User: Fold this.
Amino acid sequence: MSRFKFDRETLITTALRILPAFDRLLMRSAATKEYEIFPNSLFPWTDYLKAQTPVIRAEAEKLLQDRMSVPSVREISPDHAKIAVDDKWRSFFLWGYGVKITDNCAKCPETAKILENIPGLLTAFYSVMLKGAHVPLHTGPTKAILTTHLGLIIPREREKCHMTVGDNNNVVWKEGEIVIFDDMFPHEVWNDTDEDRIILLVHIKRPLKFPGSVLRDLFFSALRASPFVRDGLRNLDAWKQNNAVADAAPERLAAE
Assistant:
């Protein structure tokens, strides 16, 4: 085992042990009561985002005509391998934990501009669940994050494409509708239809008062420098380069 791999695994293991205590500390500064699924009314920007659905959807449709043209989640983040069990969950990242993916944003310029109006934006990507996809029951990494879903392209049999959150919440996506939830509650996702599902998935900072807000922001600064994020960005670059080579090969053969 290389020193780098050992250090990386040790860092991630240590972080997972510390996070529960860190989360308890953060929640002492919570700016809202705790919800499994949050009322959209707590986030004034949701009305703006919903109104932009036609623009965001149009760019997603154009970009994702070939669903396999974007990488699977597990290709970009091997740390998600336990929940991204196959290649049916695919993603196109625009932001990753506070890091803007500039060349990807250039392919969706209007969506990129819209995202800049979301306070506390951390991560944003088109989340594609191919027909028959399933993400097993899991929880997120920390209470510092809240997850937002904006429905873009939803199968006609909507009830068969859904997500459970916590004890009694069953989310059935709808185009133009927003769901904000705490992914530290166990959740599971199914697409038991013959069509693909596409949403805009956004992570935002949990609203916190001082001093929790400062601790939260320091945590995200450290996270951006960590192997968890840096490796994901490198994997994304490697995927782009590999696919650029593959796309160019037929053209070279034709020229020969």
Observations:
- The CA atoms of residues 130 and 247 lie 23 Å apart.
- The domain at 21-249 is CATH 2.60.120.330 (Jelly Rolls).
- The two ends are 44 Å apart (CA to CA).
- Residues 227-255 form the longest helix (29 residues).
